[in-house]
Write a structure and sequence with these properties.
The complex is a heterodimer.
Chain A lengths: L1 E3 L4 H6 L1 H15 L7 E3 L6 E3 L15 H23 L6 E5 L2 E6 L1 H24 L10 H29 L3 H19 L6 H32 L4 H11 L3 H17 L8 H8 L2 H26 L13 H20 L4 H24 L9 H34 L13 H4 L1 H15 L5 H18 L13 H28 L14 H19 L2 H14 L1
Parallel strand pairs in A: 1-4
Antiparallel strand pairs in A: 2-3, 4-5
Chain B lengths: L16 H20 L4 H5 L5 H25 L5 E8 L14 E7 L1 H25 L9 H20 L3 H19 L6 H32 L4 H4 L2 H6 L2 H18 L8 H4 L5 H10 L3 H9 L1 H5 L8 H23 L4 H29 L6 H48 L9 H4 L22 H15 L7 H17 L4 H26 L6 H5 L8 H12 L1 H6 L2 H6 L12 H14 L4 H26 L14 H14 L4 H4 L2 H7 L4 H48 L5 H22 L1
Antiparallel strand pairs in B: 1-2
The chains are: A mainly alpha, B mainly alpha.
Chain lengths: 560, 754
């Protein structure tokens, strides 16, 4: 454990991925504007070239440049994060301090979240190279020109959201965390509404912004109460204060409000209402990011608050004080999401509801962690690690199949929309490989072996059952902790979800294509590469997930 | 891994696995090559669409088998050898295999294996040769013969594997592989509804037996904790099991054998199976696969022979014998009225297999009730009884394989003659419709009503058919005579001790006469008399490849006397290898011994019985057939010198003793026989009433209750889903209100918790 106080080369090295994103951000802003512009020294005729504005250099004038820069940046950042993860041990950790205040902490736990964020954003950026149309540079068409100009905006927002998310991952202070959260959130609000010409896009973006703002405001209110209560927003101080004072009216109210802020991010019921609108209005890659990276960010916030700050407090039976609340939230969320998804005719809304259901599964896992210290569990730490690792694994592999499913819809959007189930009709004949990939994603979402989705769901359920039953021998299931019922509810919900996931398969393979969609699909190599990567990840982590699970275990261990 | 439960005393046992593996590997090769080169001239002409890939493989299998067999016989000790290649077992602490818990791949070689291995590999090879002549010259098969050869080699692999298997489990696996190939090959002309129906019928009927076989095997496993021969044949272990349960298990397995060997009441599939190409009928439905059931029963010998089971299993032995007896008479009777050449042979096969079952039943009864472990006279009786059944299996396989190939030759040449006759004048359009004319007109090339007088036109075929028929009929000194006498004698021997056996004993004696009649009828109708159609008059033998197996098997059938002289029955029946194949008695002494035994038996009962059997089988039966169907050839036609006297005799008998049998031919019995005693109708009706009725009920249950429940759940949850989604109004105001509600609920919950 080392501490960095000064802004120097060591710190840059420690925060390598974040600085990479930052530099990439600056480059996207600056590079496309490089030209033969000059600067006249006032009062003199001397013109000094300063390379901004004027006629842009040919090399940087390509509208593809921002996208490529973004992909490169994200790839580099992801590479660094993965490099760190492969190298590190759970005991590693570096604190970044400023003026005696802990700002960031770099360890395996924060890095694995960054890996999730960067992986999702990288895949989305690759896919967006095709999804965001770029016209011919020679064209005088105003729309084409317009689209070409907007390229930089889009990728800048992607990188700022990446930056915001990594700040959330590293933060050691509730306020820093909140700033990162808002940076990421605002970027995504705009990304959702990026197609402002379309009604659905701007409407979805506006709703997402309004409801999100309310949630943030409530969360911020909770933070202010926490500050009032503890006099600090530093994690370690909050934890110490909680241990000393226990739950008071003020702290509990603060906790509830903070919970609301994060619950919106993970789209837990009943704060999820804006999500289906936002997902269906947004670009598919952006919707995919919302459903994976953004959700992981909210989950991260919840874990920080619930596990680090409040877990030391325990109720009479040894489980955390918030466990009942979270259990109800989990049960309602997963059931609501699945039932709503059942009848949804819009595949993007269906995926949105399915992601609500997945949020419920995650909350169930988190609830189980809350029971970490109750009577029957012998070695509480290990049991907790198991569930945290399962949760991390779930969020990690979710990137591949959830995002992948959105990307397949993205291909359909390129030829004019994917807002009806029938848009997928006949995909099996039109582009068999794409249909196979979509089918893989669906059965992985449903949790069919040997897909990654099966393994992750299995790990979560097994983790919950392990915590609930403990290592002691139970005489009957009635003696187990009640979180056991959440595992059962998960199984029932998975069975329900099978219906709407497999329906996609039926539509793809057995229905005739819609009028006007008979021919081949829109071309685009990058989005297909991204889909292929997702498909490979979905299958590979399902078959040989051991390495990743070990990594998640280490990351979970570093949380303690 | 590896190791043996007995020392490997053989070199070639190490290579024996290739006997099975080579054909199995040839299967995908032929299939894929055929797919790739379909229609390619080199493929058609030089490789015979896979025929010449299959042939070397089958020759190699045969050579390996012969090396193995000669080594086994050369050792002269008999007994059994076991070779293991792989065994997966629970390892005990000292690393030794715990016997009975291991799952392994290996072979088990004893006298039964050796005999059947020779039959299978030899006939597979010969029929492969025959197929090249038969299949590749028929245009209807063009461009799909590779499928035939691929399935053919896969079948051979299954048969050889079953014979070599070292456990009942592997026996069953290969048994099923054969069942699959049988299905595929019967349905080779799947575009014909009758062929597709026959394939289904064969598959499903044998499936009935197989279900029982599986039950039997599970029961056996339950008794012994293993299905390895090495374990289940262990006398000490047999002594430890309950005889009643063992009898039940073996009985269940016997039902499987009944299905596979087409015995009453699961016999209905075999005649229909003749829809397959003739080589398939020859190989699968006459010479090899149908013997699997017999092999399975023969494999049960150690249970019956065990001292601990003394007298406990006689009921099962009786059941085996009586099923055989009933089938023998029933099938022979149906064969009386069949006009289709192949159908006659099919019923004959059924009847002869039934003979062998009866023989096995008698032998098993003897083994189970005589004190043959200590009494050397009883020992001889048991060994000879068992050996006679196995010898008949051998003789029948050779003869019936040959008969089917000969019938194929006849049918093939009839086709060609018919084709030449009716399409000779319109040479102009010999293109596409050439392909179709085989099946689109009503001429039946298989019906004996269209034949007659072929003896002079197809001398090789007629000779083969003559020898084959004589062997099946058991004409003295030829082929099946040596074994059939043994079966009849031993069944009667049992009947003297156990009155229940009078039924099968009477059946086999009656069957001998019936066999004489229907086999002679077939030969005379086909080869003697005047040609009944102009097609038959134009027939001549000219297809290459076909005569090779016919000539070979003719000599094998004739030389059965040599095998008898080599004390085949003693050798084959002896479980502990007391007799060397070339026994010390020497060939001549052996022959004399056999002759004495058969013709001048010192026991007056058996002396009389022998001559009764010879009389009715070789004189009464054929005599009737001559009287009804005999006749001289067309003027100027002359058959070979060894057939001419027979034809002349038949024509004389026909002239002198000929009588009108139209009253018989139109009687109710005859019609019932033509309808195969209504078995198929009854089975169909039973299926429709019982099975289809039950199926309808369960379908209704499925539709209304199961689907109904699911559909109710589905529609309910869809309605719920609509309600839930209705909350998503699309208005941000409502969303915030819901969020506020959520905050309130959270607040209240937290208040409650503190």
């Amino acid at each position: 454990m080392s501490t960095e106080n000064d802004f120097d080369m060591d710190m840059i090295e420690t925060l390598g991925p974040e600085f990479t994103v930052f530099v990439g951000l600056l480059l996207i802003m600056v590079v496309p504007n490089l030209g033969n512009g000059t600067f006249r020294i006032p009062g003199t005729p001397i013109r000094l070239p300063w390379f901004l504005g004027g006629t842009r250099f040919k090399a940087v004038a390509s509208p593809r440049l921002p996208g490529l820069l973004a992909v490169l940046t994200m790839a580099l950042a992801l590479f660094q994060v993965v490099w760190y993860l492969l190298d590190a041990t759970p005991a590693d950790g570096q604190d970044i301090m400023a003026g005696g205040v802990f700002i960031f902490k770099v360890n395996m736990f924060s890095r694995i979240f960054e890996a999730i964020f960067f992986a999702a954003l990288l895949l989305a950026a690759i896919a967006s190279l095709d999804r965001l149309p770029i016209g011919s540079q020679k064209s005088d068409d105003i729309d084409v020109l317009f689209n070409n100009r907007r390229q930089a905006d889009f990728y800048i927002l992607m990188l700022t959201s990446a930056l915001g998310m990594s700040v959330v991952a590293l933060a050691q202070d509730m306020f820093v965390l909140f700033v990162g959260l808002e940076l990421a959130s605002f970027s995504t609000y705009i990304l959702v509404a990026f197609h402002k010409e379309s009604r659905a896009g701007s409407e979805g973006g506006a709703k997402y912004f309004i409801v999100g703002s309310v949630a943030s405001a409530v969360g911020l209110y909770g933070l202010s109460m926490l500050y009032l209560w503890a006099g600090s927003l530093q994690f370690h101080e909050l934890a110490a204060h909680w241990e000393a004072q226990g739950a008071t009216s003020l702290s509990m109210m603060a906790l509830g409000f903070v919970l609301v802020g994060f619950a919106f991010k993970i789209s837990a019921a009943p704060f999820h209402f804006a999500a289906p609108d936002a997902y269906s209005g947004a670009n598919s890659p952006v919707a995919g990011v919302l459903a994976t990276a953004s959700k992981a960010m909210g989950m991260l916030g919840l874990m920080r608050v619930l596990l680090i700050i409040t877990v030391p407090e325990a109720t009479a039976d040894g489980s955390a004080i918030w466990i009942g609340l979270l259990g109800i939230l989990a049960a309602v969320t997963m059931t609501w999401g699945n039932i709503a998804a059942l009848g949804s005719e819009n595949p993007k809304r269906m995926l949105a509801y399915s992601s609500v259901a997945h949020a419920g599964y995650m909350l169930a896992a988190l609830t189980a962690i809350g029971a970490w210290n109750w009577g029957l569990v012998d070695n509480a730490g290990v049991a907790m690690d198991v569930v945290v690792a399962a949760l991390l694994f779930h969020m990690f592999v979710l990137v591949f199949f959830k995002l992948g499913a959105f990307l397949v819809l993205g291909v359909l959007e390129m030829e004019g929309g994917a807002s009806r189930l029938s848009s997928l009709a006949g995909l099996g004949k039109r582009e068999p490989l794409l249909a196979v990939a979509m089918f893989l994603f669906m059965i992985s979402l449903a949790g069919v072996p040997p897909m990654a989705g099966f393994l992750s769901k299995l790990l979560v359920i097994m983790g919950i059952v392990e915590v609930a039953t403990g290592t002691g021998s139970l005489s009957s299931i009635g003696d187990a902790h009640w979180v056991w019922w959440l595992a059962l509810l998960m199984v029932i919900n998975s069975a329900i979800s099978m219906f709407y996931y497999l329906r996609i398969g039926v539509v793809m393979y057995f229905h005739e294509p819609e009028e006007g969609r008979k021919g081949p699909l829109a071309s685009g190599a990058s989005i297909r590469i991204a889909i292929a990567l997702c498909a490979i990840g979905t299958v590979a982590f399902g078959l040989v997930g051991g390495e990743l699970i070990d990594l998640c275990r280490d990351a979970a261990e570093s949380l303690r | 891994m590896g190791g043996t439960s007995e020392t490997i005393s053989s070199t070639f046992i190490e290579y024996a696995i290739f006997i099975v593996l080579l054909p199995m590997l040839a299967f995908p090769i032929i299939l894929f090559l055929g797919h790739i080169f379909n229609g390619n001239q080199t493929w058609v002409k030089s490789a015979k669409e896979g025929g010449l890939i299959a042939l070397p493989i089958m020759v190699a299998s045969f050579v390996l088998s012969m090396l193995l067999i000669s080594e086994f016989i050369g050792k002269g000790t008999g007994g059994h050898h076991i070779g293991d290649w792989l065994s997966f077992g629970w390892m005990s602490a000292d690393g030794l295999k715990i016997e009975g818990k291991a799952f392994g791949v290996g072979i088990y070689i004893d006298h039964i294996t050796v005999m059947l291995l020779f039959v299978a590999s030899f006939l597979c090879m010969l029929i492969n040769i025959f197929s090249i002549g038969y299949m590749n010259t028929d245009p209807v098969n063009d461009n799909r013969n590779h499928r035939f050869y691929a399935e053919f080699v896969l079948f051979c692999s299954g048969m050889l594997g079953m014979v070599l298997a070292d456990s009942f489990l592997w026996l069953f696996i290969f048994w099923e592989l054969m069942g699959l190939c049988s299905y595929l090959l019967i349905g080779f002309y799947y575009e014909k509804p009758s062929a597709a129906y026959a394939a289904k019928k064969a598959f499903l009927t044998t499936r009935v037996g197989d279900v029982f076989l599986v039950i039997g095997l599970v029961m056996l496993w339950n008794l012994f904790d293993s299905l390895d021969y090495a374990v289940v044949f262990n006398e000490d272990l047999i002594a430890a099991v309950d005889p009643g349960q063992l009898q039940l298990a073996l009985g269940m397995m016997f039902i499987g054998a009944v299905g596979k060997s087409a015995q009453f009441p699961l016999h209905v599939w075999l005649p229909d199976a003749m829809e397959g190409p003739t080589p398939v009928s020859a190989l699968i439905h006459a010479a090899t696969m149908v013997n699997a059931g017999l092999y399975l029963v023969a494999r049960m010998f150690p249970f019956f022979g065990a001292e601990a089971m003394h007298g406990e299993l006689v009921d099962l032995a009786f059941i085996i014998a009586v099923i055989g007896g009933i089938t023998a008479v029933m099938a022979a009777a149906i064969a009386f009225v069949q006009d289709d050449l192949k159908k006659v042979l099919a019923y004959s096969t059924m009847s002869q297999l039934a003979y062998i079952f009866t023989g096995l039943g008698a032998a098993l009864w003897l083994a189970n009730s005589l004190d043959w472990h200590h009494d050397s006279k009883a020992h001889d009786i048991v060994v000879v009884a068992f050996g006679a059944a196995l010898f008949h299996l051998f003789n029948h396989a050779m003869a019936k394989g040959m008969l089917f190939m000969a019938s194929g030759s006849v049918i093939h040449e009839m086709h060609h003659a018919h084709h030449d006759l009716h399409h000779h004048d319109d040479h102009g359009d010999h293109g596409d419709d050439h392909h179709d004319d085989h099946h689109d007109d009503h001429f039946d090339a298989q019906s004996m009503e269209n034949m007659g007088g072929l003896a002079s036109k197809m001398p090789i075929t007629a000779t083969a058919m003559l020898v084959g028929s004589a062997s099946i009929m058991g004409l003295p000194l030829i082929g099946g005579f040596w074994s059939k006498e043994g079966i009849i004698a031993n069944t009667w021997r049992v009947a003297l001790d156990d009155p229940r056996f009078f039924l099968p004993a009477a059946c086999v004696l009656l069957g001998a006469a019936m066999t004489g009649f229907y086999m002679s009828r077939m030969w005379f109708k086909t080869f003697a008399g005047k040609p009944k159609t102009e097609v038959a008059a134009k027939v001549h033998e000219h297809t290459p490849w076909i005569p090779i197996p016919l000539v070979t098997l003719t000599f094998v059938s004739l030389s059965s006397v040599i095998l008898a002289g080599m004390m085949f029955t003693h050798w084959a029946g002896e479980p502990d290898g007391g007799y060397a194949f070339f026994s010390k008695k020497g060939m001549l002494k052996g022959l004399i011994y056999e002759f004495e035994h058969v013709f001048v038996n010192s026991d007056p009962f058996f002396f009389i019985l022998t001559y009764v059997a010879i009389f009715i089988g070789a004189i009464v039966g054929p005599g009737m057939a001559m009287a009804l169907y005999g006749g001289s050839l067309e003027d100027g036609e002359k058959a070979k010198p060894w057939m001419q006297p027979i034809i002349n005799l038949s024509s004389r008998v026909n002239a002198k003793r000929g009588f009108d049998n139209s009253a018989w031919a139109n009687s109710g019995l005859s019609n019932a026989l033509k309808e195969r005693l209504y078995f198929d109708k009854w089975y169909d009706a039973a299926m429709l009433k019982l099975v289809a009725g039950f199926a309808n009920i369960s379908a209704a249950f499925d539709r209304n209750v199961v689907d109904g429940t699911i559909k109710t759940i589905e529609s309910t949850s869809q309605k719920l889903s609509t309600q839930v989604r209705r909350l998503t109004t699309g208005s941000a105001r409502d969303y915030i209100m819901m969020a506020a509600l959520g905050v309130l609920v959270i607040y209240l919950l937290l208040e409650v918790m503190i």
